[in-house]
Amino acid sequence: MSQLNKDILFLLFEELQDDSKSLFSCLLVNRLWCETVIPILWRNPWSYNIDYKNKSYLFAIIAYYLPIDIKEFLLRQEIHFPLISYQSLLFDYLSFCRSININIINSIILIGSSLEYNQFILQQEFYNILITTCPELKYLDMRSINHQIFYFPEAKVRLETLYELKCDTSVNSAYFYELARICKNIQKLVIINNIIKSNHGIAKLIEAQVNLKNFEWKDEFDDGDFMEDSYEDTLLALEEKADNLNHLKIFIQYINWYENTLLEEVLSKLYKLKSLIIIDDTIYFTKNKLIYQYIEVLHIDYITINTASYIIENSGGHLKEILLFKHYDYFFETNFNEDSLNFIRKIGEHCPSIEYLTPVFLPEKEHFNEFEKLLKVCQKLKLLLLNLNVFDFNKTETFEEILEYEIELLKVLIRSAPTNLKEFRFIDDFEISLQALEEFLKQWKGRPALSILTTCHIYNGEDYKRLINKYKNEEVIKDFRVVSQYEIYY
Q1: What pTM does this model have?
Q2: What residues pair up with 140 in beta bridges, in sequence order?
Q3: Do 242 and 221 meet the contact criterion of CB atoms below 8 Å apart?
């Protein structure tokens, strides 16, 4: 294998670009492998799951590129460099680099000095050398930035090629105004909102983009804080990008009635969305007017079942992921019986490519029949996130009756689960008896090994652990964990 053609090796290593452990191992095989891996590793050297504070070689490599007079100045400031910073490098590492991550560079700089002023100087010199040496810039994570990098030599040329930008709203609005003047071709924009006042520079930055395809917004201020100003400017700026926007992900800690209505109006205009992810229990979707003919991923925490059915019916048959109803009160549904049946039918009729699914239904024969029909049609299904908290909707069931419902569900899965289905996640309690679980696992033998996540702590009992370990050894179970509800969804 070490004799493989370099082009083939490059294609293979490209598939491993997110697997740093494997890529680092490939460096040690021989010179050819090393020469092929280095450009991939250094394309975005900040993206790996390692402790950058202890990686002095990264500090040394960047410092190597600093001009001698700059090094001498920094030495006079009592900033010291490793000896390898003065030695020849085997590769021109920064010639491969296409990204800058401010947070990680700042953590690396701690290696050079613990003094705040020295760190400030090092930041400026490191940012400058990266911008002037990297041949083009595709990705910039500028959270916590302290320098106006657009005034560095070559900065305008580099920023014009920027494809992806990640930033936070604590940066002064004027910074975003300047970026909006230079950066017109950002296709992915990730905003971390960590202040409670609106940053009007964000809307200007959005407006300036000619081909924005992917937008993410995440509130990250302290619990109990709410935005003092409105999200209105940002939402209206997004609305103007309807002809290009394909992916939208939003987490807002609190939204008022007006902004909720405005958000629904904006979403109704974003007709080219391929993925819509709303992680929030204060945003309510209740209107049947959202049509996305290209939608592939639909993940909304709070949405009425009729609105979800309407989106599915008008989805164009492309849906691969439907993860819904994390926050939903079925007691307010006046026709839940019929509506949930309709929801299951719509999935079977309009989602032949579905891979990840949250079905909801009542423990009644007709619902189980419709669910079984869905399983037979949706042969690409890989994961089921099952919501069983509706079992006490119409009446108060006894514990024995609930067990019967759950056993019937397992029987349906044994009879009709597609061969690709190999992961179950159960929302709320799913307390199946030891005997019923063993019967299910016996009958699952010969299929792909199962991963099961549940929030029910009954499975931490010793009898259950012994049973689960037995079927792990027999490769019927790949993974069985009791987790938080957050982990069930995300």
Answers
A1: 0.86
A2: 100, 165
A3: no
